[in-house]
Structure formats: structure tokens, C-alpha cells
Amino acid sequence: xxxxxxxxxxxxxxxxxxxxxxxxxxxxxxxxxxxxxxxxxxxxxxxxxxxxxxxxxxxxxxxxxxxxxxxxxxxxxxxxxxxxxxxxxxxxxxxxxxxxxxxxxxxxxxxxxxxxxxxxxxxxxxxxxxxxxxxxxxxxxxxxxxxxxxxxxxxxxxxxxxxxxxxxxxxxxxxxxxxxxxxxxxxxxxxxxxxxxxxxxxxxxxx
Length: 207
Known about the structure:
By secondary structure, the protein is of the alpha/beta class. It has helices at 4-16, 21-39, 55-69, 88-98, 137-148, 191-194; strands spanning 46-51, 73-78, 108-111, 121-125, 152-156, 178-182, 196-200.
């Protein structure tokens, strides 16, 4: 198991040896899609990805694109205007999805309003592993809505609202059926707060 601080150090070393953030994000999102396709199948499934504003959202956007490759029908919900996505890499992946308008079933974007459609799979890409403070009321409302919806629930890297180091719920948290975490299992994750936990590769050898 690994702490958030140690994981950040590993990501920094990866950048130093020439593995950019974009490659790590691409591997993360692609492997979430791969794992879900192997576990429950994505072909023909209706998927809704919940995105925040940070790199966890970037992982979710890459996942959305790779889910299309596996035959899923994908919608993306943004808790805030995607124009304020924080990292350049995340913004780039948002742009790529937006450019795929020529597809038979392009990704549909929803901003601040969760669609009233029944989905087979709900994907949590709201908050990442760096959460230290109590979740804001804005996110609490979305987390509660996510938890109340029908569908198989998956968190990317860490359930939003869970402190990745100690496992505490920071006011409110996603309750997933599965969490797909990266590189190594985070210290605070357990079956009680994360459901089934699967570790996926992001292209970094063990450093």
C-alpha cells in the first residue's frame, strides 16, 4: 500500500525520467475501460461519467473515449463549466472528446445538470486522492445523487470524499461497487469504503 505523498513523489520521478502527465493519464483512463470491459462488459452499455475539475476528471475523460472503443454509449456530466478544468492535460482530453462529433454515437456533455436517464454504469471522476478537507456542499449534493442512482458504480483511483491515506469519509463520499486505483493500492482504501479494489497500471515501472 502507498501514501498519497509517496505516490506524488513517484509521479514526479516519472516526469523526471521522461514520462509526461499525458501518458500517465492516458494509461489510467484506458486501463479503467479495459478492466470494466473485462469484468462486466462495456459493449452496448450506457455509461455516465461524473467529472470534477482536476486530473481525476482527466482520467474520466480518457476512460470515456476508450469506452467508446469498447462499444459503450457514453455521457459526461461536469459539476462545473469544463472551461475551468484545472490542468492543460485534462483540458486537452476534453477537447478530444468534443472533436469526436462525427461518430455514430458521440459523447454527450451535461454541465451542472445531471441527466434523468437510466444508466448501466456510473463512473466517479469527481475528486482525486489529494482530498484533505471536508467535501464542499456543491460536491455533497452530487455525491448523494450519484449514490442514489441505479447502476453499477465505479470510482477512479479513490472514491470521491474518502481520505486516501486514512480511509475517513470527509463529510460525504461515493459508495462504489468497485474502485480501480493506480500503481499501488492507497493506504486508506478498503472493501468497506471502496468496494472491490483493483490496481491498474499507468505506465510507471516500480521506482
